[in-house]
Amino acid sequence: MSDTHRYLQIIDRFGECRVALYGDLVLDRFILGTPKRVSREAPVIILRHEDQRDIPGGGANALANLAALGVTVASVAAVGDDEPGSALVAALDDRGIDTGRIVTVPGYRTPTKVRILGGGQSSLKHQVARYDIEDVLPESGAWRSVLRDHLAEAMGTASAVAISDYGYGCVQTEILQSLTDATGPPPWLCLDSRYRIGSFTGVNGATPNLEELEAHCGRRLESDADVAAGAEELRRILGANFLLATRGNRGMTLVEADCEPRHIPVYGTDEVADVTGAGDTVLAVLTAALAAGAEPAVAAGLANIAAGLVVMKLGTATVSAAELRAAVETA
After folding, report:
1. Is the pLDDT of residue 124 over 90?
2. In whole angstroms, how large is the CA radius of gyration of the chain?
3. Amino acid 177: pLDDT
4. Residue 323 reports pLDDT greater than 70
5. The pairing of beta strand 262-264 with beta strand 252-256
6. What is the SS3 string spanning the chain?
7. Is residue 311's pLDDT more than 90?
């Protein structure tokens, strides 16, 4: 069976899949304006406010990507009792995502990345400033046990679980361990962790970028052989079936138990428009493909194509099943 036929077969099954995402949700807020004049108070341009766009980011971007693929998706996560939290839940609701297992935590500030873009009314707007609202969830509280119960319920019905750990405190290794010990792991448990990827033993697969893999290994990984060796080290530590290292314009490297490493060339052009959220797209497509019955090599190939598509879009973006199908058919 050709790769193209297998890819299309898996894409056709996305609509039959149920995936849960356990992770840190972020609101990506874009404020758009047109230049008005230079301020008399300081050497800065004054923008006339035009619009505000609230888009799911972080783990919420992975959720949005899963929904765009046609996957039935549930979120096990937390937001604050604040305006960005309400806006983020509303943005997920608009995409048909089950938000019933998102817990509201009093006093927690929902992580929000605010990008201010300026430009003419008929021209492309460019980012002129950004500020982040960041917080870490409290280690204790009744909300923790509620979230654990939600995760146990979601894992019981999902074909696969994606873990999106951005370091804001939602993802707890002990909760995952206790649930997998009690009921056994779900068919696929896929991890994307920014700062502590080596802590999640027992996952089936992981998707570190090159920087995260080098940080874990404690050394530069320059050649294909270096990356494959580092990825295999981490795969063994995690006890995972596979590890997919994303390498920007150098594509991806997949290592599996008892298999030769696969170096997957980048899909499309290596001149990108915006890499914002590309890792979230990789996690989403990889997990969806595994849930649909794909082997890790097939899932990695689809994730690579999706990454090549999403980096050609501006801002936090998603890839639909139709776009992925079209790219596979014309590759």
Report:
1. no
2. 20
3. 84
4. yes
5. antiparallel
6. CCHHHHHHHHHHHHHHCEEEEEECEEEEEEEEEEEEEECCCCCCEEEEEEEEEEEEEEHHHHHHHHHHCCCEEEEEEEEECCHHHHHHHHHHHHCCCECCCEEEECCCCCCEEEEEEECCCCCCCEEEEEEEECCCCCCCCHHHHHHHHHHHHHHHHCCEEEEEECCCCCCCHHHHHHHHHHHCCCCCEEEEECCCHHHCCCCCEECCEHHHHHHHHCCCCCCHHHHHHHHHHHHHHHCCCEEEEECHHHCEEEEECCCCCEEECCCCCCCCCCCCCHHHHHHHHHHHHHHCCCCHHHHHHHHHHHHHHHCCCCCCCCCCHHHHHHHHHHC
7. no
Q: Which residues are catalytic?
A: 280
Give the CA distances from residue 263 to residues 84, 95, 206, 224, 243, in Å, rounded to whole numbers and listed in that order.
40, 34, 16, 7, 12
Q: Which CATH architecture has domain 3-330?
A: 3-Layer(aba) Sandwich (3.40)
pLDDT single digits (tens) 268-289: 766 665 677 789 999 999 999 9
Tell me the per-residue pLDDT of 204-262, one tens digit each, with 9 for 90 and over.
Answer: 999 999 999 999 999 999 999 999 999 999 999 999 999 999 998 899 999 999 899 99
- Quote the CA–CA distance of 45 and 117 in Å, as a whole number: 12
What are 67-103's pLDDT values in tens digits? 999 999 999 999 999 999 999 999 999 999 999 999 9
Share the mean pLDDT of the chain.
93
Number of alpha carbons in the 13 Å side-chain half-sphere of residue 110: 28
